[in-house]
Design brief:
The complex is a heterodimer.
Chain A lengths: L1 H20 L8 E5 L6 H15 L6 E5 L6 H8 L7 E6 L1 H8 L10 E16 L7 H10 L5 E4 L5 H12 L8 E4 L3 H9 L6 E4 H9 L3 E6 L25 E8 L5 H16 L1 H10 L2 E5 L1 H21 L5
Parallel strand pairs in A: 1-2, 1-3, 5-6
Antiparallel strand pairs in A: 3-9, 4-7, 4-8, 4-9, 4-10
Chain B lengths: L1 H13 L2 H19 L5 H8 L8 H26 L10 H10 L3 H36 L2 H12 L2 H4 L4 H15 L2 E2 L6 E2 L13 H23 L16 H23 L5 H15 L12 H24 L5 H12 L8 H4 L1 H29 L7 H20 L2 H19 L5 H24 L10 H32 L1
Antiparallel strand pairs in B: 1-2
The chains are: A alpha/beta, B mainly alpha.
């Protein structure tokens, strides 16, 4: 009996060999998993990617599947239920790393197959136009003197906005653990609380704040990018411009389930490379104030290694790392 | 004057044949999505996004908005007929609407939902047309302290939902508050009462609890009836399908009030349709001359909440269009769609794209007319559901509830939860504990706790923040009056009668 199984196994292996030695492409419907509910940046990313892959004829049939819950963990569990199946890809987000660091999840980027890094989103610091906080330097000076003197609106403890503030104040020599963080359900509520004067400072993705800055209701203090950006943000200094050695980007990428074959990874590598080269993708990036930082599968892994170390350090300073 | 020109131009945009077609398509899909429990407007709109790629943004947004408000029309259907709310905001309808159906007045309940939705939907759009810009600044005045006092005021209504025994009402309220604490606590980032189940990190879903407490419990009660041979005869339609003159007279006030309540609550990004319909229900019960009929098929308990959850959609478009701030899932998906089409909602939208804004708003007047024309004839079709034999109807309710609960998150845990809450609802019914206070405290509890703690963080632990603004002081005073009034009125009456004697 055993030998029959073994013979069958070897035969199967032999049959499979040529296919992953040569090429692989999807034969069935592809599921693009969004590890959050409809609405919001992650959902937007998944839908933009799926629509483009489809429109550029890089894949035949596909569908977006929302798997919200537990800070993205349920999406990753679902992805790994299809281990080794190239028909499943998921949007990856910063919590894939940070949830592991804080102990909220036992899954991280090493449990899945990184396929690409797609783009960076920088965090803009804004106050109301009539705020007594004059500029970024003034903000840091006030918080160094008294970390409780200003309140911040964010969407999660240990989330990207909280981490950026922690990094800036930590590097400037303040006490990041004692900062006043007021947590709201969504980015929209945070923006509303700032406009209404209920919180003093909001660090948030550019797209959330820029329309109100243009309308003169809010004022930008600084941005978390490593270099000064152009266009609408040309006048906004980076933290480095202001003498604080801090920069931070919140990114989104694509991952596949664990145990993907090299041929499957190669297929997705070329698909995402072609997608990010397209004019339509560049327009999507510009509309959402997303910064191009495309990296293929092998570089993506190395990038995530570095990010994991950086995030651990920041979350450690905030007293949140396990 | 300029605005008037823009509004008139908007009508020209909305009445273009192509846009009329998309309005119809949107409201038609919305009705279907509303009828199906679990599949809400946010999922429906999200599914459309790839199809609308490359479409004229105005037409696409007109269609998406149609799905959003159209779904609120459909949500009452299953609530009335099989005690399963098709949308979270229809939860109050499954109390009195279903009781009306049991009394043979399903047709009237469905009709008053459709007409109430139409009138209130139109009130909402008028509000949106006239007050969108001034209301924006009111919405912004609502910070954590204001939301907390608003929730406190809404919470004082719990006594109106309690039955004869206050103790039993308290049991239901506390259970609801306890369920509301399950999940990751926003302010600390810590998981509470998740029992190691990852699905619990986001809390126990409201729709899941409600489907269990209402629909599954009803099936269990029905089964008991069948096994004991005491099952009531199948519900039939008694009297005419349409509203009687008396029913119509009783409904008109709640529809108007519900329309206003829904619109105002809708403007606040933190609240939403479910809170609007609960507020309308408790308002009607308090104002009613016969509050004892509520919970036993009072038409006011259907007309008010259904009106409120419809005008809420128009209210929710105020912060979306003027600030780019979505108040819930459906408006968040619409915001994503706006940006995808290269249109930025926010303070400059009314100046930069008046054609789009007014085309969209004015299409909603037309969409509401289409919906009422579409929904009224459907009543005759839907009430046929009541003639299905129980042996087929109960398994069907279980199937619809299970599909609905599963469709929200695709989670098997939610299926176990509807069973669990079905059993809880059945036991509550046996020992005469009301479920409405549980529903109320579950909706309000989480937000009340979070806004309280947000306010305390902002003020550094100083309670002064709760009496620091006109809004909070007004809401606190209203809460106090609402708690004390039931004690004061009998005394005043007693004093009055004494005065007569002397």
């Amino acid at each position: 009996m055993k030998s029959i199984f073994r013979a069958g196994f070897i035969a199967g292996l032999l049959a499979a060999m040529p296919s992953w030695a040569q090429e692989w492409k999807p034969e069935r419907n592809v599921e693009v998993i969004v590890p959050s509910g409809p609405g919001g940046g992650t959902d937007k990313t998944g839908r933009a990617v799926q629509a483009l892959l489809q429109n550029l004829k890089l894949i035949d049939r596909s569908v977006v599947v929302n798997k919200p819950g537990a800070g993205g963990r349920l999406g990753m569990i679902y992805l790994n239920q299809h281990a080794g199946d190239g028909h499943f890809v998921s949007v990856s987000t910063v919590p894939l790393l940070t949830n592991h660091i804080t102990g909220a999840s036992n899954l991280t980027y090493t449990d899945v197959t990184p396929l690409a890094q797609l783009f960076s989103e920088y965090i803009l610091f804004a106050v109301r136009a009539d705020s007594p906080v004059k500029d970024g330097r003034d903000l840091v000076a006030r918080l160094k003197q008294d970390p409780q003197s200003l309140s911040f609106g964010v969407t999660a403890i240990g989330g990207t906005s909280h981490m950026v503030v922690g990094q800036v104040i930590g590097k400037a020599g303040g006490d990041a653990k004692r900062l006043k963080m007021v947590v709201f359900k969504s980015g929209g509520e945070v923006t509303g609380a700032l406009l209404g004067g209920h919180v003093d400072v909001v660090p948030a993705p550019v797209a959330n704040l820029l329309p109100h800055i243009k309308a003169g209701k809010l004022r930008a203090l600084a941005i978390s990018s490593p270099q000064r950006l152009g266009g609408d943000l040309a006048a906004v200094p980076t933290w480095r411009d202001l003498g604080v050695d801090a920069s931070f980007d919140t990114w989104r990428g694509m991952v596949g389930p664990r145990g993907m074959t090299p041929a499957q990874t190669a297929f997705w590598d070329s698909a995402f490379a072609a997608m990010t080269r397209s004019e339509a993708w560049k327009q999507d990036l510009a509309k959402n104030y997303w910064g191009d930082n495309y990296l293929g599968s092998s570089q993506a892994k190395a990038y995530l290694d570095r990010e994991y170390k950086d995030f651990r350090a920041i979350l450690g300073d905030l007293g949140l790392a396990k | 004057m300029e605005t008037l020109t823009h509004i008139l131009n908007g009508f020209a945009v909305a009445t273009q044949p192509i846009n009329l077609w998309y309005t119809f398509l949107g409201v038609f899909m919305g009705t279907i999505i509303g009828v199906l429990p679990g599949i809400g407007p946010s999922a429906g709109i999200a599914l459309l996004i790839p199809i609308t790629y490359g479409m004229n943004p105005t037409s696409a947004l007109i269609m998406m908005a149609g799905i959003y408000y159209g779904a609120k029309y459909g949500g009452s259907t299953t609530a009335i007929l099989i005690r399963t709310p098709g949308e979270a905001a229809s939860v109050m309808t499954s109390i009195d609407g279903y009781e009306m159906a049991k009394k043979g007045r399903a047709g009237a309940a469905l009709a008053v939902s459709a007409i109430g939705s139409f009138i209130a939907g139109t009130i909402g759009v008028i509000g949106l047309t006239l007050f969108a810009v001034p209301l924006t600044s009111m919405a912004l005045k609502f910070g954590p302290a204001e939301y907390f006092t608003l929730m406190l005021f809404a919470m004082t209504a719990v006594s109106t939902l309690t039955g004869k025994s206050p103790a039993k009402g308290v049991i239901a309220t506390i259970l609801g508050l306890m369920i509301a604490t399950i999940g990751i606590d926003l302010q600390s980032g810590q998981a509470r009462f998740t029992m190691g189940i990852p699905e619990f990190q986001d809390g126990v879903g409201f729709v899941v609890v409600v489907v269990g407490l209402f629909a599954m419990a009803e099936v269990l009660r029905g089964l008991e009836g069948i096994f004991r041979g005491t099952s009531a005869e199948a519900m039939k339609i008694r009297g005419k399908l349409w509203l009687t003159r008396e029913e119509w007279r009783r409904s008109i006030g709640p529809i108007w009030r519900g329309g206003v309540i829904g619109f105002v609550v809708g403007v606040l990004p933190g609240a939403g349709g479910t809170i609007a319909s609960i507020m309308s229900y408790t308002t009607e019960k308090r104002m009613s001359k016969h509050p004892e009929e509520f919970g036993h098929g009072a038409i006011e308990g259907v007309a008010g909440p259904e009106a409120a959850n419809n005008s809420d959609t128009a209210g929710a478009l105020v912060p979306l269009l003027t600030l780019g701030i979505p108040g819930g899932g459906a408006t968040a998906v619409m915001l994503g769609a706006f940006i995808m089409y290269g249109v930025q909602p926010g303070p400059l939208l009314f100046q930069n794209r008046p054609d789009l804004v007014w085309g969209l708003i004015n299409s909603m007047y037309i969409g509401n007319v289409m919906l009422v024309i579409l929904n009224l004839p459907l009543i005759g079709l839907f009430v046929r559901l009541l003639y299905i034999p129980q042996g087929i109807l109960y398994p069907m309710i279980v199937a619809i509830s299970a599909i609905g609960a599963y469709a929200i998150n695709g989670s098997v845990v939610d299926l176990w939860l509807i069973l669990l809450f079905g059993v809880i609802g059945y036991i509550f019914d046996k020992v005469d504990i009301p479920v409405a206070p549980l529903v109320l405290s579950l909706v309000l509890g989480g937000m009340m706790e979070q806004s309280f703690r947000q306010a305390m963080t902002i003020s550094g632990g100083d309670l002064k923040i709760f009496y620091g603004s006109v809004i909070t002081v007004t809401l606190l005073a209203m809460s106090a009056i609402s708690v004390l009034l039931p004690f004061i009125i009998p005394r005043l009456r007693a004093m009055g009668s004494k005065g007569d004697e002397s």
